[in-house]
């Protein structure tokens, strides 16, 4: 069962925790630049406006409650620890410049000759393909295609967060987790590189909690067992519990349907990853907008923030109520209506804030424009 499946079936205690998280978060949004952080709870060196902007940028097309529930579950429903974890994520996303990476995208990397980043895309060492039996998008990683000296660690980390953000676009409610399939066929010691694995583990544990649904390690050679012992030691037990070892196509059938397995792995899908280069002008609404587009973006941004303000006001009222129903506040359906409205606002703004990806170009991203 996914997080969104359970968001409307919380226990009274869990609903109270969700409300408390919202109360603390909304209070932080009101924090002025000169406010001394409270010693009574989690604090941040970001201003209230920066925190607010960071939160709603992170939400994107998610249910805001579900994003918060990820952190609450990751910290076993301890509200202050969950909020502190999220605040660290905001700071990390700002330092890594994730929103700018997403806005600039592949075409920018091509134009600026970011060869390390483009190599990740062109090599096919990691790509999203199909879904597992739970409807989760699957990130395929043919480990034999990776060699540590082919790119810098910076390029690998940039590509990793870029792919994580891209995968989020492919989540379709109620599914909000992903599967990773490490194809170890042909893997040798020349392909071993601990640094990107450590970084990926850190991302899932610290900044993308509850995004990993399943990790398959397929056709691992015999010597990988000693490597796995090292890697497992780095992992949070919750993340480690999601790892499964499979062998042969029959091993994959437990998790993936045959038509979601490429022929290269014994499936029926006659498909090979072949990177499609960015198109000149595909990000024109970002790079060189017309006056009409600038005005359109301004209106869309204003509408988005108006919806956010309404959602925050309704959520504040709901958070102060004694009712433990997670979706209600004032008008019983108001939060759900505003949530759907916010998703629509964000989709309308998408072409102004997100560069097109390979998955847009091949038609995998819905409502891409």
Automatic annotation (TrEMBL):
Xref: InterPro entries: CRAL-TRIO_dom, CRAL-TRIO_dom_sf, CRAL/TRIO_N_dom, CRAL/TRIO_N_dom_sf, PITP/CRAL-TRIO
Pfam families, per database record: CRAL_TRIO, CRAL_TRIO_N
Transmembrane segments annotated in the record for this chain: none
Residue stretches in coiled coil: none
CDD domains from the UniProt entry: SEC14 (cd00170)
PROSITE patterns reported for this sequence: CRAL_TRIO
CRAL-TRIO domain mapped to chain residues: 128-273
Name of this protein: CRAL-TRIO domain-containing protein
Organism: Dactylellina haptotyla (strain CBS 200.50)
Source taxonomy: Eukaryota, Fungi, Dikarya, Ascomycota, Pezizomycotina
């Amino acid at each position: 069962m996914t997080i969104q499946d359970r968001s409307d079936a919380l226990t009274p205690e869990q609903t109270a925790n969700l409300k408390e998280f919202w109360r603390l978060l909304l209070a932080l949004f009101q924090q002025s630049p000169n406010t001394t952080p409270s010693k009574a709870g989690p604090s941040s060196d970001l201003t209230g406006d920066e925190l607010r902007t960071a939160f709603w940028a992170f939400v994107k097309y998610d249910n805001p409650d579900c994003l918060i529930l990820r952190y609450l579950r990751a910290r076993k429903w301890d509200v202050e620890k969950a909020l502190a974890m999220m605040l660290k994520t905001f700071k990390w996303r700002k330092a890594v410049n994730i929103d700018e990476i997403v806005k600039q995208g592949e075409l920018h990397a091509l134009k600026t000759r970011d060869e390390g980043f483009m190599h990740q895309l062109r090599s096919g060492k990691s790509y999203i393909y199909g879904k597992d039996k739970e409807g989760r998008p699957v990130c395929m990683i043919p480990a034999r295609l990776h060699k540590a000296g082919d790119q810098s660690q910076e390029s690998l980390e940039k590509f990793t967060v870029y792919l994580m953000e891209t995968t989020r676009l492919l989540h379709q409610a109620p599914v909000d987790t992903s599967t990773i399939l490490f194809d170890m066929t042909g893997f040798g010691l020349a392909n071993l590189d601990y640094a990107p694995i450590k970084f990926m583990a850190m991302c899932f544990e610290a900044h993308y909690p509850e995004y990993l649904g399943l990790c398959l390690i397929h056709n691992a050679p015999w010597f990988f067992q000693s490597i796995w012992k090292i890697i497992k030691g780095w992992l949070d037990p919750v993340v480690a519990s999601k790892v499964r070892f499979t062998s042969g196509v029959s091993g994959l059938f437990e998790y993936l349907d045959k038509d979601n397995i490429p022929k290269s792995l014994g499936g029926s899908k006659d498909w090979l990853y072949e990177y499609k280069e960015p198109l000149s002008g595909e990000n024109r609404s970002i790079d060189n907008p017309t006056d009409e587009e600038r005005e359109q973006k301004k209106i869309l941004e204003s509408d988005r923030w108006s919806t956010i303000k309404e959602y925050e006001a309704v959520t504040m009222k709901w958070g102060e109520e004694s009712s433990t129903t997670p979706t209600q506040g004032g008008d019983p359906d108001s939060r759900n209506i505003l949530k759907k409205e916010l998703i629509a606002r964000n989709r309308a703004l998408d072409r102004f804030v997100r560069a097109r990806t390979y998955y847009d170009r091949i038609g995998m991203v819905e409502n891409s424009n």
